[in-house]
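Because discrete structure vocabularies remain unfamiliar, we reproduce here a specimen of the format, pairing a chain with its fold in token form:
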Amino acid sequence: MESTETHEAPPRLPGRLPEILETLSLASDPMMRGEMLLDYAARFREVPPEVARRPFPPVNRVPACESDAYVWAVLQPDCTLKLHFAVESPSGVSAKALAAILDRALSGLPPDAVAAVTPDIVPEIFRANISMGKGMGLMSMVRAVQTVARQAAAFEATGAPLPAVFPRAR
């Protein structure tokens, strides 16, 4: 008897995310995976002063993020995005790791490709290594990246001069 159920293919992840997730999946030992995530956190580079300076605008703040994270995207002259982050909490190791992963995987892509990232990557990246509250904040960080990417895509369509920084103040 044939099944009438249809299964949707999982959405294709943008940029280098499939490669990064594949590498993380090879770490079956939680300690090894934790070390890999700490390595990403060590690669974190804060938003440069030419993009943003303290105090950071509230429009860039990631809602519900325990680590007090901020997100920017710069639409480059070649119509690709460069992502930037700030993580204000000294204990924001998971937020720094996610920021480094998102930057490495998505910077250099067009805004529409960056906007295709989904919060579903958070449990794939961190597995059981985070609390529910932290997981919600990290998913909110991914949603903030989607938002700035969509803003950049809409701006790009206007033909206005580049580079431009997002999010734009409302």
